[in-house]
Amino acid sequence: MCETYEEQVSRVVDALGRERFQDLTDDLHPDSSIDRVRLFVDRNREKRVEKLRSQLEFVAGVFDDFDHWIDVYVRQHPLAAYDTGTCDAERLLLWLLDKRPLTAEQRDYVLCQRGRHAVEELARCCRAGHLAFQALRARQPADWVDGDWASVTLHVNPIRTNVTFITRALLDPKTDPPTEVLFFPVRNEIATAVLQPEELAALMKLTGAAPCTLDAWRERLKTSRGELLPLAQALVGVGLVAAEVN
Asked: Which of 50, 83, 100 is the last residue of a domain?
């Protein structure tokens, strides 16, 4: 039975990735050779390693042997056919967490980078919601807090994830670990915020009701306007919430 084009591509790519060059003899062009194929594979591997180094420079700083682990990962996990490599760095981080004993600080750095990857992926998958929220935030008036509470509608940033850090390596000196850190986009950047447990609970209440008015949020929290306004200003200020004045 003849193999399809897709099957042929998958077979050849798998052989290249695993450096089983002897399996490719029948696929070679008459003017080519195994040595030229080996050179092609070596160059592609070098490009992949360089890309991973660039993408994970932040994490590499807490490892003495990060280049070694990149090389081991690349050799053990060849890219599959039609794999663009866009998730390659994330897979390497998962592999590190699963296969290599990490220090607590290394773990925090890996999880921090994974938090950034998660936000980027969410923004790609939910692009319409991401762009709509950022556009709304760009239009919000600076004096929104001076308006009538019934006229201010709050929207929660739909793109966010959370990571728990267990060391002080990436935390403010005043913050005690373990603590939960939120990752979310602000314009074209990824921001972070550390909320107190009661602030995080209030944000979750808002998430369950949003979009809603300030008063509707206050009623859900059973609190006063004076107590809620500073939190609302802080959440809007960092980019977790957008205020729309009707």
From this structure: 100
